Amino acid sequence: MDGLANVDVTNLSPAQRDALMTQVKQQIAMVNAQTLIAELSEKCLSKCISKPGTSLDSTEKQCLSRCMDRFMETWNHVSQAYQQRVQQESFGSQGSGNFGGFD
Fold this sequence. Notes:
Elements: H1 14-48, H2 58-96
């Protein structure tokens, strides 16, 4: 996102705005993926590996696999719930004439 802070979007054509939005969305997705991997690694490695070594034993492999599966399942569940909440709040505020769907 280098240089995006200096972009004057009012002077961009609709196609340029769309391209800029696509670029921003891709960069946000990349940051989210990096955050997910960092959190997953920190939590699962600290939980499953008590003595770092040159290889993983079968118990550590199984623990890591289960931990990663649970973490991803939870991440997906939270993401879906968040998206639904944002959509509900967006729809609630559009037709009601009030802020955020609240009276």
